Amino acid sequence: MKHLGFLSFGHWTPHPQSATRSAADALLQSIDLAVAAEELGADGAYFRVHHFARQLASPFPLLAAVGARTSSIEIGTAVIDMRYENPLSMAEDAGAADLIAGGRLQLGISRGSPEQVIDGFRHFGHEPRPGESDADMARRHTARFLELLDGEGFAEPNPRPMFPNPPGLLRVEPHSDGLRQRIWWGAGSRATAEWTAAQGMNLMSSTLLTEDTGVPFHQLQAEQIQRFRDAWAVAGHDGEPRVSVSRSIFPITDDRDRAYFGMEALSTDQVGVLEGVRARFGKTYAGEVDDVVTDLAGDEAVAAADTLLLTVPNQLGVEYNAHVIENVVRHVAPALGWR
Question: How far apart are CA 250 and CA 258, in angstroms?
């Protein structure tokens, strides 16, 4: 394990027991938690994107703000739903946010998860083409987005422009060199991981897979990672790809931890149906520090990945979530080979 970050869904609800009661709370606390994580020595601050929900939705203003408040931590998404995105405006926004952050963006993108509304992408002006599924549309948007990040000119300049143009066809600006190599795809299956490698994207794997072979979740995910790396080698891409996995990890070090997550020590894999497909969900790692370390040491996917993202309960507030991150940074990650 070489990189350790957190992943926040940015939930908010106007409930008295929530420490995050408004969209403003969710956004401002996300920035504060990223600052705290950097001070604690963590490597990454990642945010989930959900539309039509009381969660984080528009990632680039948040990423830019985090980039302006921090100096070294990686800043990313896990993941942006490409069914909703205009590739050209996304390339502009991503380029600007990456330049503000000094080239620290790690953008996770995907087909997306089950939606809050029916075909919400249509409300954003996106329609699948005839014979195309919404997943096909997401991949089409992705292909165009990746082309734009390459930085090649494609737009015919006006012969009488308002401002002078460089020679040749024009590209989307601002352009950030190197961002194309920092795009990740959130893959939910082994086959999608192989497709991800073929496209030259890094692999982002979550706490669920949309398939089940009967083996424990971490073993199935480890197979997914190996298939990704094998496909990358076959494709002949330059460099080594990165792989991240997400885990819910709560070492119990005080009474608050015990009250919130003590019962999660009994957690196991779960199998259910997601959008009509049998899926396997990974367990939560909670318990005394030594027990958590021992349990994670047997997680084959954590061992195979170079990046571990801690899913945090953001509605418990910045102070408590910083405490969770610190517990992992100090007591768990070093035993797993981090730094």
Answer: 9
